[in-house]
Amino acid sequence: MSTFCVVGGGLAGLEFALHSALKGHRIVIYEAGPQLRTNHVHFDTRVFDGDEKKVHWTADEHWALGGISERLGGRSLCYHGVMLPLEEKALNSWPEIWQKRLKGPAGLYHQLQQEFTAKYPEMSRNQAVNLPLHHAPQAAVVGESAAFTSYSPLYQLEPLIRDGVITIERATISQVEKKSDGFYLVDAQGQTVNTTGFERCILSASALVNNKIITQSLARSTIAQVTDHYCIGVAVKVREGERIADYRHEMLWHGFSEHHDLNANIFVVERNNFDNGDRLLLLMAVMEQNPALSDYSELHCRYHEGKTTLEIQSKHSDAVIENYNQLASRIVDFASTQLGVRLSPLHDTAVEQSEAFFGASEGIDFEQALNALNETERTNIYTRFVFPYGAYEHESCTHPIGGHGDIALTDSLELTAMPGVYAIGPGAFPRLGIANPALTICSLSRWLASHL
Ligand SMILES: Cc1cc2nc3c(=O)[nH]c(=O)nc-3n(C[C@H](O)[C@H](O)[C@H](O)COP(=O)(O)OP(=O)(O)OC[C@H]3O[C@@H](n4cnc5c(N)ncnc54)[C@H](O)[C@@H]3O)c2cc1C
Predict the structure, then answer these.
(1) Which of 38, 170, 273, 276 lies 20 to 30 A from 178 at CA?
(2) Helices (H), 103-142
(3) Gap from CA of 360 to ligand 1 centroid (Å)
(4) How far apart are alpha carbons 350 and 335 in whole angstroms?
(5) Closest ligand 1 atom, CA of 188?
């Protein structure tokens, strides 16, 4: 029996740990955050240490200081469970071998979709929706008292922990060391956490923290690319028309519309009516920073006097800004056309109306948008909200398969600079694409579990 260590017990790390343990390996998971939350935040509404975001990097004003939460289970304990495969256009720029592993009837996407569909009704629920939208497949279930929960490998670990096949230790890992008898992990206080060497080490502490650990381990600075989705939303208040569908839960979308000409999907949900009977719809556009139109931003991991610090320098080409501004207009046009209403902006401001929306859009808060619609007596209106670039929790491409330099991964997800160390999660994506990343994250972890 081989013993592997996994650094970071989030979606990517736990998915690997579960499936590697099922294949007969012994796994020790090192996780920075507490083990208190064992269910989705919409199911267990207590606030725990670890729910807050810990900021680990500095950035210019165009990359949000979002931070990363540190807790066992990672973001899968608060995410929507949307499971979309990467669209063909993005996948085509992945190495051919990975296209084969992911696509087709024998590919990982199909295998995982079937498995989730068998367990999660929201993957395939055929709710009639009165708009031309695709169903948004969510590995999620809404139980009694509207308790939402979505897929996380965490829920399946208990028997393996009980049998001693998987162990979870609390530690914030900063460095991996290779010795003659295997890999050793060093924590943030400089203490070595294991007494016997591990055969393999799997980094899954998020796209950004993985690079920090790699840099600290190599004891030299690294530069990597990093990207995230852009997210532009509109909240719409209308009097006309019938509901598009029954409202079921704030974490469930009614569907999404593909706008691949603008590298985007638009997700739609109609919420409960306002008190005065007017309808409330939310439309959220998720846009890829297309590498054909723009360089990705840069993640600088600076190694100095034995410590690594992270800094992000963002990049937005004119073409990407143009794409973003067109999407800002498209989302309003799409809403107006589908609802058959000429929508007007709530605020008479340049930001609300402007086609030059990029950059003017920082800090338009979702809750403020809803409150503003609630307070006005006007109807057939929209107001905007955005999640700043770098805050959308889809940060990725930091140590891509087939990349260059110290942070590159082989087709087997092994670090070229540190053989025997592997890295998983969205940091390994060569291209992010438009789709939400969870299905691809799980696929990479499953593949590595089979491969090792
Ligand atoms: C509200 C919300 C909704 C979302 N909805 C969706 C969705 O519907 N579909 C989708 O595809 N994606 C969604 N996402 C994004 C998705 O959750 C992330 O892409 C995914 O969780 C990333 O997986 P990961 O394992 O790389 O990182 P994480 O899930 O963040 O896990 C990283 C783990 O590493 C631990 N860690 C960090 N540093 C260290 C260290 N130094 N040592 C040890 N452990 C460490 C952390 O505590 C954490 O447990 C959503 C995100 C949010 C926040």
Answers:
(1) 170
(2) 108-119
(3) 28
(4) 20
(5) 41
pLDDT of 326 strictly over 70 = yes
CA atoms within 13 A on the CB side of 325: 17
For residue 324, the CA-to-ligand 1 centroid distance in Å is 25
Strands (E), 46-125: 53-54, 57-59, 68-69
CB-based contacts of 217: which residues, under 8 Å, 6+ apart? 175, 176, 177, 418, 421
Look at the block and give the residue holding tokens 């056309």.
337
Residue whose CA lies nearest to ligand 1 atom number 13: 79
Instruction: Tell me, in angstroms, the distance from the centre of ligand 1 to residue 51's CA.
Output: 12
C-alpha distances in Å from residue 451, one per residue of 105, 275, 412, 422, 446: 19, 56, 8, 11, 9
- Work out which ligand 1 atom sits closest to the CA atom of 82: 8
Is the C-beta atom of 76 inside 6 A of ligand 1? yes
For residues 431 and 435, give the distance between their C-alpha atoms in angstroms, rounded to a whole number. Answer: 11
The Cα–Cα gap between 137 and 120 comes to: 9
Q: Would the CB of 66 count as within 6 Å of ligand 1?
A: no
427 CA: nearest ligand 1 atom: 26
For the stretch 391-437, pLDDT in tens is 999 999 999 999 999 999 999 999 999 999 999 999 999 999 999 99
Average pLDDT, the chain: 94
Ligand 1 binding pocket includes 267 (Cβ within 6 Å): no
How much is the average pLDDT of 384-391? 90
Distance 241 CA to ligand 1 centre (A): 39
**Residue 93 exposed, middle or buried by CB count within 10 Å (0-12, 13-18, 19+):** middle
- Evaluate the CA torsion angle 421, 301, 424, 293 in order and state its sign: negative
**CB of 71 sitting under 6 A from ligand 1:** yes
Share of the chain above pLDDT 70, in %: 98
Q: What is the pLDDT of residue 356?
A: 65
pLDDT at 47: 87
pLDDT tens digits along 177-204: 999 999 999 999 999 999 999 999 999 9
